[in-house]
Structures are given as structure tokens and as C-alpha cells.
Write a structure and sequence with these properties.
By secondary structure, the chain is α/β, with parallel strands linked by helices. It has helices at 10-22, 25-31, 36-50, 66-89, 106-119, 136-144, 200-205, 216-225, 240-248, 262-267, 296-306, 324-334, and strands at residues 55-58, 61-64, 98-104, 127-133, 150-154, 171-186, 207-211, 233-237, 253-257, 270-273, 281-289. The chain has twelve helices and eleven strands. Strand 1 (55-58) and strand 2 (61-64) form a beta hairpin. 35% of the residues are buried.
């Protein structure tokens, strides 16, 4: 069979799927190492060959038309088949290079995935692991476009998100654990050794370091402190890493999710302060394509993540270092 001349190229179809994932021709072009103008020309040429309008372009980005979405559905199948063909041609199973493509919310990718990989059977000398990050919507798009094998999504990466209700029907999800919030101070803060729980009024009166407006952490903190009438004195920073640095070296206080501060708590650089009310938790889920399923290495990582716990000991003021098993049990309860 001779393919017709208007048959799209696989590379152009893959580019279209990237536009669907990123919502932008420019970002898709960057992912494919193209200039934005070159990517736009290739998609326009594909539209002319097929006689279809594939994209709705606007100053804020690009999205697929109804015809574009239909083409993308077929394109995903073609790209998946092409990848399988390449894997078949790469040699026997024993000679293949291990590859795992993972995506996650920022906190999970930075603080949890490295630990999960180290605790699994992976050897960094034998496996190629690629980790990407993004919002809930971006992670779902990466899965559906076959750009990743697996994603870990947490409820704190979007303000007001109810993660377990946001997954489309073509994705499989598995609950991993809950990520709880905590009030945290540096080792030099008087609250680091405080024996009694903190009141919300005291927290509201403290010198605070907060995440930027619009984040899930900021949303909760504002809601919590809104019940107190004390004036608030705070610094606003755009990342958890910046906040931890500011708190560790000052007399300031912050509210962060446990997953982002586990190593600092274990090493004694930061200290968790008890509060006189229950702090909320949001779930972390693993998600993958129902149609493609989970590759062996991705399945191994999910099982490791689901086991929870941390290998790191926890050091409390005035106490000896706890055993690894006890530390794992305590942190597993918190997250």
C-alpha cells in the first residue's frame, strides 16, 4: 500500500499532541527543540494537507478544535504504536535500556520521588529516569499525550482542588498517602521547644512567611488565620525552598505540607509546632493511562510510594536519635 501524499508525518502529529498538552504552540515548539515559527508552519501545512482546521489560536495560547481533538485521538494511537515499533527494533528485552518517565506536582517531584526511587530497586547506573513537573491539568495532559508513564498528583498544588474528583475516566488512579500541613519554625525560635500547643491567635500574631496568593497552601493559611483578629506581619515567597531558608535562619514561622519539610525535620534544622486544632491533609494519588497500563518499572515505583514512610531518623530537642523503624512509623502517620 502506498500512503497518500496528504498523510501527516509522525513528527507533526507528535507536535500537535504537545500543543494539546501545553496549550501553547511556543511551549510545544520548545519541547521539540523548534522555533515557534517553525512549529506553527508545520502545523499549518498539516492543516492544509488534511483540509482541516486543527487549532484555535489566541493571545493566551492555543487549543485544539473539535476536528483537532479527533485527529489527536488517532495520533496518540499512532505515536504509541511507533514507540512500540522502535522498542522492538532496539533488540532483545535483556539489551534494552530501562526507561521511566514520571511527572509530579512540584512538592512531590522535589521531595518525595527522589526518596521513592532510592528505596525502590532502581539503579541509577542502569535506568534512565526522567522526572517532569506541573499543575494538575498539565500532569493529566502529559499522561494522555503519552509523554509520561506515570504521574503523582497532590491536592496542595492547586487552590481549592479536589484531586480525586478531577481525573478523567481514561485515567487509572491509586491513592498513595495523605500530605498533612504543619506549623514549622527554625531551631532558634522559642517555639522549637514549646511543650504546649499553639493557638491560632498566637500564630496570626507571629512574623509569618507565606506562599504566594493562589496556591493551595496560601488558601488554607488565609482561611485559618482569618478567624483571628490580630494584625498579620508576613513575607510572601514563591517557593517552599525559599520559605524554608527564610524560616530556618530567622525568628519567623510558616505553614507547609509535611512532604516538603521531612528532611529538615529529621535533621533538626526545622521543628514542627503543635497547634490546638486539627491541621488538614490532602491526598497524593498516582495516575496513569488505562489504555496503556503501567510499565514494570513504573509499577515498582507506585508500590514503593504506596508503602509510605521515610528511612530518615527524626531528631527532637533534648532526645536521642530515634531508630529508623520508629521514625518511619511516626512520619508515615503524618504523611
Amino acid at each position: 500500500m502506498v500512503l497518500p501524499s496528504k498523510m501527516p508525518q509522525l513528527a507533526d502529529l507528535d507536535l500537535l499532541l504537545s500543543v494539546e498538552s501545553y496549550g501553547s504552540v511556543g511551549k510545544a515548539a520548545q519541547a521539540h527543540s523548534l522555533s515557534q515559527s517553525a512549529a506553527s508552519v508545520r502545523i499549518s501545512a498539516m492543516e492544509r494537507r488534511l483540509g482541516l482546521r486543527l487549532l484555535e489560536r489566541s493571545p493566551t495560547g492555543s487549543k485544539l478544535t473539535e476536528e483537532g481533538e479527533m485527529l489527536a485521538k488517532y495520533a496518540r494511537n499512532l505515536i504509541h504504536a511507533a514507540r512500540e515499533l522502535l522498542e522492538f527494533g532496539s533488540g532483545s528485552q535483556s539489551s534494552r535500556v530501562k526507561r521511566l518517565r514520571v511527572a509530579a506536582s512540584p512538592a512531590v517531584s522535589e521531595h518525595l520521588i527522589p526518596e521513592w526511587l532510592n528505596r525502590s530497586g532502581f539503579s541509577f547506573g542502569e535506568a534512565r529516569v526522567e522526572v517532569r513537573t506541573g499543575s494538575v491539568d498539565t500532569l493529566q495532559q502529559l499522561i494522555r499525550a503519552s509523554h509520561v508513564d506515570l504521574a503523582f498528583i497532590d491536592g496542595w498544588c492547586q487552590a481549592g482542588s479536589q484531586v480525586q474528583k478531577q481525573f478523567p475516566d481514561d485515567l487509572v488512579t491509586r491513592y498513595i498517602c495523605d500530605d498533612k500541613l504543619a506549623v514549622v519554625v527554625g531551631s532558634r525560635h522559642p517555639w522549637a521547644t514549646r511543650p504546649s500547643p499553639l493557638t491560632v491567635q498566637e500564630l496570626a500574631s507571629a512574623q509569618l512567611v507565606l506562599r504566594e496568593r493562589g496556591s493551595g497552601l496560601r488558601e488554607f493559611t488565609d482561611e485559618l488565620l482569618g478567624t483571628a483578629r490580630a494584625p498579620r506581619n508576613y513575607i510572601e515567597l514563591p517557593s517552599s525552598a525559599a520559605i524554608k531558608q527564610a524560616v530556618a535562619t530567622s525568628q519567623r514561622v510558616t505553614v507547609l505540607n509535611i512532604s516538603t519539610v521531612r528532611s529538615e525535620l529529621a535533621e533538626g534544622r526545622l521543628h514542627r509546632v503543635a497547634v490546638d486544632q486539627e491541621m488538614p491533609a490532602k491526598p497524593i494519588y498516582a495516575a496513569w493511562s488505562e489504555r496503556r497500563g503501567l510499565p514494570e518499572y513504573a509499577r515498582e515505583l507506585v508500590e514503593t510510594a504506596a508503602s509510605k514512610g521515610s528511612p530518615m531518623p527524626v531528631v527532637e530537642p533534648g532526645h536521642k536519635i530515634k531508630s529508623n523503624r520508629l521514625a518511619e512509623a511516626e512520619i508515615a502517620t503524618a504523611i
